[in-house]
Amino acid sequence: MGARFTGGNRHGRIRWSTHCRVTECEPPHRFTFVVTESRTAWGWILEPAGDGATTVVAWREKVGEAALPVRLLQRSGILGRDRETLMRDGLERSLDRVKEIVEQ
Description:
The protein has one domain. The two termini are 25 Å apart. The radius of gyration is 15 Å and the shape is globular. It is built from two helices and five strands; from the N terminus they run E-E-E-E-E-H-H. By secondary structure, it is an alpha+beta fold.
């Protein structure tokens, strides 16, 4: 807990970094972090299933108002108008990768 890392993001040809802080870490079951710029918490819980697979329960939530540059970028439409779908798709891709690593 408290560790910091830089997150890499992309949408088409647009790429950017975010600054993140770990808020929960209970290896190997639970991991949550907050993105400083957007004030968004992301997290997941990994639960073993009876067949040897891993069930992933994930969420994101706003924990405060995003920084002004982030709000302006979000309103600009550069990343698309359907931000919710963009965020959900990104989370699903990230979790697919986490699941792949955990099951190896």
